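dumping these here so i dont lose them again. two proteins, back to back, each one seq then structure tokens. dont judge the mess
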Amino acid sequence: MKGLFRLPAVLALVTAAPAARADDWPQWMGPTRDGVWREAGVLRSFPPGGPPRRWAVPVHAGYAGPAVAGGRVFVTDFVRTGGAPDHAPSPAKRNVLDGTERVLCLDAATGAPVWKHEYACRYELSYPGGPRCTPTVSGGKVYTLGAMGDLLCLDEKTGAVLWAKNFPKDCRAKTPLWGFCGHPLVFRKLLVCVACGKDGLLVAFDKDTGKEAWTALSGEEAGYCPPTLVDAPGGPELVVTTPTAVVGLDPASGAKRWDVPFRPRYAMAIAAPRLEGDLLFAGALGDAVAVRLGTAQTAATEVWRADRHTGVYPSNSSPVVAGGVVYGVDAGGELRAVRLATGERLWETTEPVTGRPNAPAQHGTAFLVRHPDPEADRYFIFNERGELVLARLSPTGYAEDGRAKLVEPTGSAFGRPVVWSHPAFADKCVFVRNDKEIACFSLEKP
């Protein structure tokens, strides 16, 4: 079956909302967290001058992408009040900054402010450029996770705090070097989080009350991978990569069903695993593996493990799988097409990321979103240069149909300016942010 998950089952599982609008983008990587935008009426080529900008609103620092639901935009940022960050952040050095983390709610049509919630927050982490996690909107509530482990459940209409947790205090967690990055996941009545706690690396809370439902896994580090729900042959399964393993769990109880060894460099388990059919792909800097899931919930068999000639090793962005092919951005900035069944590399190019076909960049980053099309799937690729690229990806190659500069890269990484924030696609628009503004551009078909 073409596509990442068996859609009807996952739509019923991922969100508790009874009837989410098709053009919402209520959480990280879309309604089913698979990086697929299914809205109709979307353009197939850019107009002269690029997509028209509908509005732009000032924001402060943040890696967190926006969520769009019910005609509103939700985004988080960090307003610094003290301390001095490195002009060139060190991957191994924690900066100490004083400031305020904010949750902003805007009108999706105009950008007008609706409500704001803020709280004091001291950063002690590397790359202190703001929150990392996209808000999760479900059932009239907005769930946000700050860089230092502040988990909030807010009323979607008013921004009132319904319940809150602080992972270092409530879960005995140590803040990861690069902060808390696992976008919270709603599963039925649960909110599943990567909490990095001493009592469990994963924690599930009652999504309405905040009461702890279960904890799972143990170890020194949890990594940065978001909890991922897949429609496995044996039923719904929660999958996460850690610095030591790819793990499958029962999402209702947290009980571990299987694990496969996984050893990314520097504990950089970041990209979400991807399932098509019964094959699951997991990749990170230094390791990549494909696992076959069986009908028995405890069954998982390693199919192949990448070497320097095979696979893709994604760094900051999660891949997309379509038609038996993994499309992912490697740690060197190469967009690669890899056959899911074997790990064979079909082609690679750095053009979507750096603007040139053979110009790698250390941890070069671009975010892929697939838009299914009866004639040929289109991909919207938002790269670290602040450009939106419209392209066709297939097993035979990369074909670019357009490129437009939407925002400036206001961050810094490895001596170059970058914007590392996943956009949202909703209401026939794209919503993008950097450290100075969030902007909405129309992608409506003329």
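---- next one ----
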Amino acid sequence: MKPYNADEITVILTVWKRSHLQKQLNYILNQTKAPAQIWVYQNETHFNINIPEDVKTKYNISFIHSKDINFKFHGRFVLPLLADTEYTAIFDDDTMPGPRWLENCLETSKRHNCIVGANGRILREGFEDLESRTTLGFGDGAEVPEEKEVDFVGHCWFFKTEWSRYLWRDRPFSWDNGEDIHFAAASQIYGDIKCYVPSMPSNDLSLWGDSESHLGRDDLASWRRGNHEKLRSEILRYWCDRGWKPLCHQQKD
């Protein structure tokens, strides 16, 4: 089998109902660690995308379109199975990384052999009997003075491409949410992989995973749906029953 291209990154950008693609491409093309290729994944067709051919060629941008089927939250995680780079970074459509974000991710992932995210959550003890808001958050537009191990990450997932296979060993509890929990839990269970939010100091916004966190607070945000917390609570319990150990459970061992 051909080995992965060492230290190279495939960036996957998700397009659904938000029209931030051009803005996001500008952020990605300004990275100090340039991606080897950029895959723009459009889920359904809510508006037209027009990337000039010369730009696509210059920056190795490819367009993948699920025209008639909504593959929801998990569909984009199939694509790394086809990538030949050692690393993959999947971005939500509202996430605008600082110019050293991919560099920051690469260094953090190498240091801890971990999944890296632009934000993260740590579950509080007793979360099994409560809703998913019983978490401690890191990122989300706030500084992270020192890198932090967390239970799961979101907004951006930076990881070794080969780890994407862990997500597909089990069927999701729901296709309607929880891809962040699913990926973290399955990677821990099958690969002993941890999750980290890297250092994002207040005096260096170039290292931040998201420079415009306000974009994720619009009416399209999944957390605004009425069943969001209940569903995520069920997903958390599902994965704990399958052997996932959040940090608060590990402390009891």
